[in-house]
């Protein structure tokens, strides 16, 4: 279980060694060109340092969230399945509608050193 208690996002997925984490509840329109509408007051972040938080947010806003939009098209809005939406050496992003039939929960974290 993560040390970061995010208000929004997929719960229970952030590993303990994550340097920073971000979560959101988006309005979900499967099949749309941009299926996730991120609402400013449905996002949260946790970090061990301001530098780690800034780095994670910079990576997300620098293109990762665009990739997430691409891979999230379609799918069952009633699903409980958690899908890996993006994964590289630094960041992992997962998402799930969590059976909400209208929202999509996304969580990203900056991976730990090991």
What is the CATH third-level topology name?
Beta-Lactamase
Structural class: alpha+beta
From the alpha-carbon coordinates, what is the Rg to the nearest angstrom? 13 Å
Distance between the termini: 16 Å
Which ranges are low-confidence, i.e. pLDDT below 50, for 5 or more consecutive residues?
none
CATH class: Alpha Beta
Going by CATH, the architecture would be 2-Layer Sandwich
Q: What is the 3D form?
A: globular
Strands of the widest sheet, in order across it, are 2-1-5-4-3
Total beta-strand segments: 5
Strand content: 35-45%
Count of alpha/pi helices = 1
CATH superfamily: PAS domain
H/E topology pattern: EEHEEE
| Main β-sheet description | 5 strands, antiparallel
Q: What is the count of distinct domains?
A: 1
Describe this protein's structure:
This protein is of the alpha+beta class. Helices cover 19% and strands 35% of the residues. The chain is built from one helix and five strands, in the order ββαβββ. It has one helix spanning 50-71; strands at residues 20-28, 36-47, 83-87, 91-96, 103-110. The longest helix has 22 residues, at 50-71. It is globular. The model has no long low-confidence stretch (mean pLDDT 91).
Structure summary:
Helices cover 19% and strands 35% of the residues. It has 114 residues and is α+β, with helices and mostly antiparallel strands.
């Amino acid at each position: 279980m993560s040390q970061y208690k995010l208000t929004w996002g997929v719960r229970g997925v952030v590993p303990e060694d994550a340097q920073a984490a971000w979560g959101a509840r988006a309005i979900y329109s499967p099949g749309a060109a941009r299926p996730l509408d991120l609402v400013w007051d449905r996002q949260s972040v946790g970090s061990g340092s301001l530098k780690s938080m800034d780095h994670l947010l910079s990576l997300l806003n620098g293109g990762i969230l665009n990739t997430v939009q691409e891979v999230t098209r379609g799918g069952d809005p009633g699903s409980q399945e958690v899908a890996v939406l993006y994964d590289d050496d630094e960041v992992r992003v997962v998402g799930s509608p969590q059976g909400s039939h209208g929202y999509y929960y996304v969580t990203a974290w900056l991976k730990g050193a090991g």
